[in-house]
Automatic annotation (TrEMBL):
This is Bile acid:sodium symporter. InterPro entries: BilAc:Na_symport/Acr3 (IPR002657), Bilac:Na_transpt (IPR004710), Na+/solute_symporter_sf (IPR038770). Pfam families: SBF (PF01758). Keywords: Membrane, Transmembrane, Transmembrane helix. The keyword Transmembrane applies. The chain crosses the membrane at residues 37-56, 62-79, 91-115, 121-143, 150-174, 186-206, 218-238, 244-267, 288-314. Its main location: membrane. It is a multi-pass membrane protein. One of its GO terms (cellular component) is membrane. It is found in: Membrane.
Length: 350
């Protein structure tokens, strides 16, 4: 998801005639609005689906397609420069991605068993943990005065390697309690994630001017897509959610907060700069819950997608709160100088 759009400009002087807003400015304003209120919009959608489940019960087959559109948009925001950090700071990137794919799957597994969740809901928790980083994390890291280039690279790399690691992790952690077709899941992630992302990146390279004109509408498409996914998931498992709602919300909150805390702890233990610790924390704690929901609806029961639906709301709330707190705590000057020397000034976010 893109960061909030900057203000349109100065307020005109009294008595001055103001020209009507252009369609581009209107779309930009709508995108900024929905991006700012994303969590509340998704929460409201979940409440509507819970109150009127028959209205959205047939939407589940559209979930993978919705996610493909979102991932196409993510690919269109990428640039080759996003991967330059691999050569400049491979250790930081390797550490961050390794933390992403170890802490969250194991934490999801542990929390689910600690709270005694059913096998289906446990599979959903593990799917959330085994998913790559969420695109909104880049914005949160930027607002938190974190290491934005590291955040962008972690999201990009974790997404590109998801077709291999996500099925393997799910097989290892879920395979004993529920049947898992790892090869089919690998193919699904290729189709839902990798192909759209690579296609979006190619479009950015081949048609840069066209893509630049589309960037302002991408946050709007992402919010609409995730909202539709939440409507489908909650409507398809309304009875299960009413039955285990509070316990499942607690599980999701523990999963997310634990990921944020352990991600920061890993950065601190390895003596990473403060800005990099913030980036790793947010990248580890915020997941691509849309992918988890899509895989859950295809390979398990509809109820397995409930942790992802709740996570999609909560991690944006917790991420925003953490980013706000860190934005008021300056990064040490020595850390800023060290990152600037490595070409990671954190000036770019998306």
């Amino acid at each position: 998801m893109s960061p909030p759009v900057s203000p349109r400009g100065p307020v005109p002087a009294p008595g001055r005639v103001v020209a009507p807003s252009s369609p581009v400015e209107t779309v930009r304003g709508v995108s900024a609005f929905v991006g700012r209120w994303f969590a509340l919009i998704v929460l409201a959608a979940g409440a509507v689906a819970l109150a009127f489940p028959p209205a959205f019960a047939g939407w589940s087959p559209a979930v993978p397609w919705l996610l493909s559109v979102i991932m196409l948009g993510m690919g269109m925001t990428m640039r080759p420069a996003d991967f330059a950090i691999i050569g400049r700071r491979p250790w930081a990137l390797l550490l961050g991605v390794a933390a992403q794919y170890t802490i969250m799957p194991l934490l999801g597994f542990g929390v689910a068993h600690l709270l005694g969740l059913s096998a289906v809901l446990t599979a959903g928790m593990i799917l959330v943990g085994a998913a790559p980083g969420g695109t909104a994390s880049n914005v949160m890291v930027y607002l938190a005065k974190g290491d934005t280039p590291l955040s962008v690279a972690m999201t990009s790399v974790s997404t590109l390697i998801a077709p291999v690691l996500t099925p393997l992790l799910v097989l290892a952690l879920v395979g004993e309690s529920l049947p898992v077709d790892g090869w089919a899941m690998f193919r699904s992630i290729l189709q839902i994630v990798l192909v759209p992302v690579v296609l979006g990146l190619l479009l950015r390279l081949l048609l840069p001017r066209v893509v630049e004109r589309c960037l302002d509408v991408l946050p709007l498409l992402s919010v609409l897509g995730i909202t539709a996914v939440v409507l489908a998931v909650v409507a398809g498992s309304a009875s299960t959610l009413l039955e285990v709602g509070l316990v499942l919300v607690l599980a999701v909150v523990l999963h997310n907060v634990g990921g944020l805390a352990l991600g920061y702890a890993v950065g601190r233990a390895t003596r990473m700069p403060v800005a990099s610790r913030r980036a790793i924390s947010i990248e580890v704690g915020m997941q691509n819950s849309g992918l988890a929901a899509a895989l859950a609806t295809v390979y398990f029961a509809p109820a397995a997608a409930l942790p992802a639906a709740i996570f999609s709301v909560w991690h944006n709330v917790s991420g925003s709160l953490l980013a706000t707190r860190w934005s008021r705590r300056p990064v040490p000057v020595a850390d800023v100088s060290a990152l600037e020397a490595q070409g990671a000034d954190g000036s770019r976010a998306r």
